[in-house]
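Study this pair:
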Amino acid sequence: MSKLDYVLLLNAKPLSTEVGHIKKPTLRELSELGFDVYSLYLVFLKLTPEHYYTSFKGEAGKEAWENLTDEERKSIKLFDMISQDLSLQKMYEEILNFFFVEQIRAIKTADDGFVFSVFPKDAERLTEENILTFIGEKQFYDAIEIMQQICCVYEPDKNPENLRFKNNKARKMFERMQKAEAENNRRKGDNSYSLGNLISSVAAYHPSLNLVNIWDITVFQLMDSFNRLSVNTLFGIDKTRVSVWGDEKNTFKPELWYKNYYESEGER
């Protein structure tokens, strides 16, 4: 799945998909849910088979993952893991119910698999005759990527499955670099980008948002406002520099304040 259109994410209206409507939670809704719970949801929205084995299954899981060949690892799919783990089914059912306008339930299929059933949002009885449609494997992955984009945690270029490598050695080198980057970020422990701090910072610096009305914007709108404020701060500094000292080397970029950073993000 490709990145969603910028204006679709800026808009606060739910996104229509083939299986239902996905909400863009406001900060107020996250506060009511609990930011710790929301953080947990993000972990599962980013869950990979490797993460599941090495972080959720203890030492036995790590050993099992390490003993798998590359081909065996590639064959393991998140949806298959969910079908075999009732606790994962319940967790993703909870996450989908938070994001979807409709009601979602995980149910077994005749072949011992499972799907997520979609019911009307106002349905009082979640019975078979009230099912609108089903979320199968493809629809599930599409929904996960949409929710990742809504929550600003979508990183398609960092997923080895979305990249092409010249050989297996190049793939392994990329994966080692990712692990090193993740470990480096963990050690830094920088909480400047925590949701609470971003809310406080934007409310203090934005010309119209404050701690009273900021709760009605979405996560994407918060992050977009934060990024724009950051860019405009640098633009203001650069503009002042040029007005005082001139721009002999022609480095000033007057278009900086309105550059589309969202759609050029993958080019940097």
